[in-house]
Amino acid sequence: MTTNINTVSKPVDPVRRHTDALHDPQKLLIGGGVLTSLILLIYLAVTQVIVQPVLLLIGLLLGYTLFHARFGFTSAFRRLMSVGNGEAIRAHMLMLGAATVLFAPILALGLSFFGAEVAGYVAPVGVSLIVGAFIFGIGMQLGGGCASGTLYAIGGGRSVMFITLIFFIIGTTIGAAHLPFWTEEMPSMGEFSLATSTGLGYGGALVASLIIFAAVAIISKVVERKRHAPKIAPLPSASGWKRIFRGSWPLWVAAIALAVLNALTLMTRGEPWGITSAFALWGSKAAQFIGFDVASWGYWQGEAATALNSSIFADSTTILNFGVILGAFIASAAGGLFKFTKITKGNFMASVIGGLMMGYGARLAFGCNIGAYFGGIASFSLHGYIWGIVAIGGTFLALYLRPLFGLSVPKSNDSVC
What we know:
Layout: E1 7-8, H1 14-21, H2 27-47, H3 51-69, H4 74-83, H5 87-109, E2 124-126, H6 127-143, H7 147-155, H8 160-184, E3 188-191, H9 201-227, E4 232-233, H10 243-246, H11 251-269, H12 276-289, H13 304-308, H14 316-334, H15 345-364, H16 369-378, H17 382-401
Antiparallel strand pairs: 1-4, 2-3
Helix pairs in contact: 2-3, 2-14, 3-7, 3-11, 3-14, 4-17, 5-9, 5-11, 6-15, 6-17, 7-8, 7-14, 8-12, 8-15, 12-14, 16-17
């Protein structure tokens, strides 16, 4: 989640907010980001199938949206568990609701733009999922962001997230090597879809899903009132039409935009938005380069071997990831907010451990906050719901671990969460 730098605070004067925190556009950086994106787009159009440049454009919009709204998963879970603020969780429910409304007909009718076979993310429910999601929940609170948060924070110049990303890749590569043990030796009840495993069909599963999302939103509101949770402070923002380009966007706008973009991803490449499978690919290619017999791993057997032996530019998830980073970079520069940040001993160590845990956990849990939680739930998979519940449990434990690394743990009267 993603790192979400929305804050929880008392109301802030909007004039002061606009003048103190929003800077002039960093035009040179914007130009560099746009130029890099265009070069990559042309390269993909010339060397790859048409799907790849389209996915780059979708990735750019994903990164732009994530940054401008600071749409988070990591901080959303942390705020809920620490101070009872559920505003971001309700944005999640809106995002999931919009996504399921879009996914239901796409999956039911097999709708796609380029003739690809369409399938959602439906994964097994078992020990591997539970262990992986719990580890990931801890890791994202130590690493300072989830999978999407790591990418868009890098785009915004948050220096320590480069450390998180490196060890995220290492962790997911180790997880890929160990995955056959977790999937073949550990207990599992197999895949379970609300649409196809229950007899509800996609229409019934959609109704059931929307009821669940509404219930979670209502419960979060009740928890807020009982705990007298502080509100999320407004972010620095331009006004009028400039807000489209300079932010900040309301969470509800980003929630709907992300749902639409995920649906477009599904129709473009035949599967929803994902992030961490590319990390496993990058890490495995690096391991292969230095002498590891990666091709013998169970993870890279069958159709997966094609990706291992092909260019990373042929991997659709890689292209989406590049797009997210570039989109967030352009968005941060447009708001005059791109700036490398300080790395301390504490957040360095937390990023190393958090990155390893997220990477390993993502492979065991068949995805991260995007592939498992967002994509899984939108695909009507039970594993997505379980991932969210268990990752929140990992978040709760991580609240006690964060102070060991000098990381803050918000209290009810804190201004930052």
